[in-house]
Amino acid sequence: MRLAGKKALMIGAATGIGRAAAIQFADNGADIVIADINRPAAEETVASLAKTGRHASAIACDVREEASVRDAVAAAESRMNGIDTLVFFAGLQRLGHAEQFSAADWDAVFDVNARGTFLATKYAAPAIRKAGGGSIITTSSLAGLRGAPGMTGYAAAKGAVIAYTVALAQELAPDNIRVNSVLPGWIDTPFNNPAIALMGGVEAHGEVVKRIVPLGRQGTPDEVAPIYVFLASEESRYITAKQMMVDGGMAH
Ligand SMILES: NC(=O)c1ccc[n+]([C@@H]2O[C@H](COP(=O)([O-])OP(=O)(O)OC[C@H]3O[C@@H](n4cnc5c(N)ncnc54)[C@H](O)[C@@H]3O)[C@@H](O)[C@H]2O)c1
């Protein structure tokens, strides 16, 4: 029960890494509201949490729409009687080498990953301040630090998330609000299917993973979720403005 009494708004937690984190948050005693563009999947995740006895509910939210983000924060605050934790997972990947990449795809990856992170934190920060402080956790990617061929637009957007997180951490520290970013490496979710196709298919991708990941395999969402639990918990109360890599040792 490392999150007993916490009230978390989890944006983009309907599937994948966010879903695994939502389950671990509820198992650790947090109330949660999942806000996601995929409302049916968000409802399904919430239904699987009924046994925890904590508040768990879903809201439709498109992080590309400012009003939608603002309304999701207000709804979560009213449903849980406050918010002290914001976790942002929503992500979009568009692939292609820079010379072939369209400006529309560039805007699309920035809209969801970078601008979405900005909007969510902009509206959630006052609520967390009102609660006396808390934790904001953004989701970047190892690509946001290291880049990768075919991922220039996505890498740039995830790099923006890192820089934004570090700047925001300094702005909000006086209010006892910590802001950190999680940087997953290769994690086994359908999110990567287009990247795996670009790399030549599952077998070719598997060979690359074996070569570049010291632990020799992809991670699972369940293996990334605990870092979010830690960053939301009081155990991490002296940790802010950090990039937490969960990558099987890929960055070394
Ligand atoms: N899987 C990986 O290997 C990996 C690696 C590095 C970073 N990440 C990042 O982790 C996060 C989660 O990825 P995942 O692998 O769990 O994939 P996922 O597709 O399961 O999760 C993305 C979630 O964001 C939601 N979403 C997408 N667009 C949205 C929008 N406009 N408004 C609201 N919600 C929206 C989706 O419905 C989904 O629930 C993403 O930010 C991704 O960039 C993933």
TrEMBL record:
Q: Kindly give the Gene3D superfamilies that the UniProt entry links to this protein.
A: NAD(P)-binding Rossmann-like Domain
Asked if the record carries the keyword Membrane, the reply is no
Superkingdom of origin organism: Bacteria
**InterPro entries in UniProt:** KR_dom, NAD(P)-bd_dom_sf, Sc_DH/Rdtase_CS, SDR_fam
Task: Write the record's keywords in alphabetical order, separated by commas.
Answer: NAD, Oxidoreductase
Ranges where the Ketoreductase domain occurs = 6-189
NCBIfam families xrefs? PRK07231.1
PANTHER family in UniProt: DEHYDROGENASES, SHORT CHAIN, ESTRADIOL 17-BETA-DEHYDROGENASE 8-RELATED
* Family, as annotated: Belongs to the short-chain dehydrogenases/reductases (SDR) family.
Q: What is this protein called?
A: Short-chain dehydrogenase
- Native source species: Shinella yambaruensis
